[in-house]
Amino acid sequence: MSLPIALVVVAALLAATLLAGVLLRRRDGRAVTVHGDRHVDPADLMHPLGAQATLVQFSTEFCARCPQVRRMLGSVAAERAGVVHAEVDLTSRADLAARYKVMSTPTTLLVGPDGRIRSRFTGVPTRAAVLSALDGADHVQEATA
Q1: What is the pTM of this model?
Q2: How far is CA 93 from the centre of its chain?
Q3: Is residue 55 classed exposed, middle or buried when 0-12, 13-18 and 19+ CB atoms within 10 A define those classes?
Q4: Long-range contacts formed by 129-137: CB under 8 A, 24+ apart
Q5: Helix pair 66-79, 127-144: axis angle to 10 deg
Q6: What angle do CA 64, 135, 70 make, to 5 degrees?
Q7: CA dist., res. 136 & res. 130, Å (int)
Q8: 70-82 pLDDT tens trace
């Protein structure tokens, strides 16, 4: 392979890698509404569901970003009545990673009081995104109640 062709190939691979990184970074921490009838089994959490919502955090022992998510979700749950935070360590519960389609940690599910998954965050969510998703979940509950 000639030098100019090799440089073009390397430049194309570098551009593709940068584009993939930017796209993945933009999705990190954003709420994705879960459609359908997907539910969380409270027995999987070993924790009762909250009266308004449950923030289920999937983490591992080796996750560097999980402690900051744990603190933020814990503080959100502490200031919102009826909202609880449950953390599942996938290091000891690898079966749940497949069941709930967790591909990376941290992953957070916003679960309604009926166990239905309403939103999913992959990566580190912002406090504002979590509060917005909770407000949306509260609104949906009020509309159907």
Answers
A1: 0.74
A2: 17
A3: buried
A4: 129/29, 129/30, 129/31, 130/31, 130/55, 130/72, 130/73, 130/76, 131/76, 132/31, 133/31, 134/52, 134/53, 134/76, 134/80, 134/83, 134/110, 137/52, 137/53, 137/110, 137/112
A5: 40
A6: 20
A7: 10
A8: 999 999 999 999 9
pLDDT digits (tens, 9 = 90+) for 113-136: 999 999 999 999 999 999 999 998
d(CA 19, CA 13): 10
Residues in the chain: 145
